[in-house]
Amino acid sequence: MSIPADQIRSFRNALGAFATGVTVVTTRSEESGDVGLTANSFNSVSLDPPMVLWSLAKTSKALSTFMTSSHFAVHVLASDQEALSTRFARAGTDKFADLPIDRGVGAIPLLTHCSARFQCRTAFRYEGGDHMIFVGQVEAFDHWERPPLVFHAGRYASAVRVIKTPEAPSDAEPDSSFSQDFLIYLLGRAHHQLFLQLRNSLRRYGLSEDGWFVLSLLGVANNRTLDELGRLLAYTGKGITYDLLASLGAAGFVKLAGFYDPHARVELTDAGRRVVIELVAAARAAEDHAQRNLDDAQTHVLKHALRQIINDSQAVSPVAVPSLEGELDE
Ligand SMILES: Cc1cc2nc3c(=O)[nH]c(=O)nc-3n(C[C@H](O)[C@H](O)[C@H](O)COP(=O)(O)O)c2cc1C
C-alpha cells in the first residue's frame, strides 16, 4: 500500500515530530574512494552484541559503495556541526574536501569534533521500501562531552534540559496577581536580583549604576567622545550628564579632555581602569552564580532569546538605541 500523493507531506510532517540527533555515515571503497552522507535514521539496536542501524535511500549515489563495503562509521554530530551536516546532505559535491580525516577499521574515513563515533562491521542489510537498512556490529566507539545537534520538524535545534518549574519566591504575590508570569516582570526581577550582588561592590567605590555603565563602556574602548557615550547609554533612557561626569572625575576615575561638549573625549584613568577590572570580575562572579543551574544549551537559548527581544524592542523604542552588534560579547 502506498500513501496517497496528497498525504505525503503530512506523513513527512508526522515523522518530523520525532526529534532525532544528526549523524554523518561514512565508508570507502577502492573504486569510489571516501563516501558519506547525513543521516538521522540512526538508532541503537542491541547492547550485547553492540549493534546499531541506519537506513539509506536507494537513490543515494553512495548506495553501491555501502552495499559492498565491509565497514562503515557513524558520527553523531555536535551542536556546532550544522555546516558539516549541510555539507554531507548535498549530493554531487566533494564532501571530504579540506576536512581533517582520521582512518578507522578497513581504512574508513573518520570525522573529528563530533559527540560520538561508532566504527561498525556491516552485519546485515535489509530491504526497507525505498531505503536499505544497514545493521552494524560496533567494533570501536568514541564519546566526547559535546552537546548534540538535534533535528526536529525539518529544522536543526539544540537539546535543552527540561527545567522543573522553580518554587515561587517566598515574597510572591497572591495567586490572583497576573504580573508574576509577565516577561517584563521576570526580566526586571532577574536583573535586580543579579545587580544586587554587584551593588555592594559599586557602593564601595561610591559609584551609581549609571557611573558603572560609563566606566564599563570606557573599559571596552577607552577615549570615547561624550556624544558616543551618550548614544551608547541611550537604551537606559538616561544618557550622560555633566553631574555624572563631574562625579566620576572628582573620584579620579575619568579625565575629560577639553570642555564639556559633545566632541570632548573622556579617558579612563589608571584608578578607573583598576575599578573596571575589579567590577568586571564581580560581574563575572554574579554571572557564574546565575548560570550555575543552567547547562550550556540553556544559556545559549536564553541569550539568543534575550538578544531577539532586545533587537525587536529596539525597532519600536521611542529613543534611538544603539545596536547590540559589536557592543557585547558572548
Ligand atoms: C538532517 C538530515 C537527515 C537525513 N537523513 C537521511 C537518512 O537517514 N537516510 C538517507 O538516505 N538520507 C538522509 N538524508 C538525505 C541525505 O543526506 C542526502 O540525500 C544526501 O545528499 C545523499 O547524498 P548522496 O546521494 O551523495 O549519498 C538526510 C538529510 C538531512 C539534512
From TrEMBL:
Its domain of life reads Bacteria
Question: Does the record carry Disulfide bond as a key word?
Answer: no
Gene3D superfamilies for this protein:
Electron Transport, Fmn-binding Protein, Chain A (2.30.110.10), Winged helix-like DNA-binding domain superfamily/Winged helix DNA-binding domain (1.10.10.10)
Q: Which UniProt keywords apply?
A: Oxidoreductase
Q: Which Pfam families match?
A: Flavin_Reduct (PF01613)
Q: Does the keyword Oxidoreductase apply?
A: yes
Q: Flavin reductase like domain location, by residue? A: 15-158
One example GO MF annotation? FMN binding
Concerning PANTHER family, the annotation shows: FLAVIN REDUCTASE, FLAVIN-DEPENDENT MONOOXYGENASE, REDUCTASE SUBUNIT HSAB
UniProt similarity note: Belongs to the non-flavoprotein flavin reductase family.
In Swiss-Prot or TrEMBL terms, this protein is called Flavin reductase like domain-containing protein
Q: Which organism is it from?
A: Steroidobacter agaridevorans
